[in-house]
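wait is this the right file?? whatever heres the structure
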């Protein structure tokens, strides 16, 4: 059993427009990383107007400014979703009980599932849910999480921050347990 901290970036524009996967970053508990970008995004990385028209975003610049502008120009990172799914399967490897963690994980889980098709198409050993760092944070009294600093909304940088947030929350949990056991 290993933990995999991940983040996805996506375009979401209401019920008339399905979620469109942009990128995914994963950091394994052992420190390995995986990062890939949807090949569809290659054509848009420099053309804001075409991107906004394709996804019916009008003049909404948030995804463009915060996500698209952080995408790398390295063409080797841009892949078909089917290839990304296979590479994620290889990244997880022989782990028969992977634990996926994300921050505000609901959409991240949907995007992960859609890489494989539908939720029922997930690899047999993948869980049908993602553990949520925000829920854990709330359960621990909502302590202030560490600042991420640079790289926010880059899926791999966000996945690295998820590891940091998880480790921080584990320390909070440990401290609470020690106080409870110590009677303080």
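ok assuming it is, sequence goes like this
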């Amino acid at each position: 059993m290993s933990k995999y901290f991940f983040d996805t970036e996506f375009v979401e524009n209401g019920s008339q427009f399905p979620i469109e996967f942009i990128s995914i970053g994963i950091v394994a508990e052992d420190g390995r990383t995986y990062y890939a970008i949807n090949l569809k995004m290659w054509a848009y990385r420099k053309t804001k107007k075409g991107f906004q028209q394709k996804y019916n975003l009008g003049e909404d610049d948030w995804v463009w400014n915060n996500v698209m502008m952080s995408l790398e120009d390295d063409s080797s990172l841009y892949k078909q979703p089917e290839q990304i799914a296979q590479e994620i399967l290889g990244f997880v490897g022989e782990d028969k009980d992977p634990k996926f963690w994300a921050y505000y994980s609901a959409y991240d889980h949907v995007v992960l599932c859609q890489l494989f098709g539908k939720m029922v198409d997930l690899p047999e050993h993948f869980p049908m849910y993602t553990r949520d760092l925000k829920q854990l944070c709330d359960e621990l009294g909502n302590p202030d999480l560490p600042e991420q600093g640079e790289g926010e909304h880059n899926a791999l940088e966000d996945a690295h921050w998820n590891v940091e947030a998880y480790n921080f929350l584990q320390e909070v949990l440990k401290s609470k347990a020690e106080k409870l056991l110590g009677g303080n």
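The chain has one domain: 3-182. so i think its the right one actually
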